[in-house]
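Researcher: Let's run the pair from yesterday's discussion. Sequence first, then tokens, for each.
Model: Starting with the first of the pair.
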Amino acid sequence: MDRPLLSLRSALVFLLALLAGTASGGLVAVAGEGMPRSVLAGLAVVGLAVPFFNRLIDTETSPVLPSSTASGTVEEANNG
């Protein structure tokens, strides 16, 4: 039981998703909708934000591809 329940990356993803859901639910509530609709909107945003932030905060093992190589070949093909 020495290791944490969640990794730091997982905790950050869930925290950011929870903050996004809370913010959207609060905005829906301020807009005049009822409490059930604001809770449903917040839960929907949390459900969509978890995969978004999981992909945004990618692991360190993924390779970083340079973006200039793809655009350089298109420019060379247009010039020649």
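Model: Moving on to the second of the pair.
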Amino acid sequence: MGGAAEGTAAGERRPGGRRFGTWCAGLPLAGVSVVVGCRAAGTDALTPVPQLLAFLPWLLVPTALGLLCALLARWWTGLVWGVLVLGLLAWFIEPYGRAGTPGGPALVSLRVLAANVEFGHGTDALVTAVRRERPDLVFVSECEYTCAARLEETVGAAYPHRRAVPGGGSTGSVILSRFPLRGTAGVPGTMGMPGAVADVRGHPVRLQLAHPMPPLPGRVGDWRRELDGLRDFAAADRRTPTILAGDFNASQDHAAFRRLLDTGLRDAARLTGQDRTPTWPARTAPPLGAQIDHVLLTPDFSARAVRFLDLRATDHRAVLADITLHRTR
């Protein structure tokens, strides 16, 4: 009699436990499904989707949690749901964009460094890296007045050519070059995005620093418009070799960034098999983070190597790319 009563009580508790397990599985799977659905639909949607898309690979964690809870709750519908979401995540984690090497002969090799120095705080670390790595072109985001002056003082002799948008805080940016530069209008934005045409040993190369607004709540429209401005710049001239580098505040999982790549640009990190190496936030990278700093190239270039440099006092890792310009026409 007592055993029967205990069995009845356990049977009454079991449905409640299953309901709890179903909720524990359904909530993370529903959240991840919204983000993955936006990725599949090719839209960045609204906050918080753009922010979560930056960390798409890490959505494997709540997906795995949902699968485990569905399994423990014996919720077979949830288990199938979780497997489908897991499969889509695995598909989208694959590299996006074209790869390959130009078929023409090599013309000139050069080294490019792109760094965000976080309101100028990382300037001294950048100077050390520039002196050690000796890049030919340096794209510096968030280089406010003191940063610009410090770079002129310390490495100005080695980089006699520059294009800058002066500004305080995050709005200042500068391109440093060993090659002669002809100024261009750049791309309009909330933060400075200077541009130039470099004479790289007799070969014109378009240069454009990228630093669109981050997709902050309430500013996603500005972020999307400024990335579209960079896309328009890339699409405006597909014949001249182009380097577009900086802090894009976007990863390959953002539709606005993929539209930029669809103009024919190639990510140097993608070309060297490092398209998922995080650059931000530097405090947790490389184990955890998103790759939002890029060196993008037209198909005239190949990439031999890409390294990610840890700079003290900034929240971004710098991207150092060794590239080669080829004759393709």
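Researcher: Give me one sentence on the second I can quote.
Model: The longest strand covers residues 106-116.
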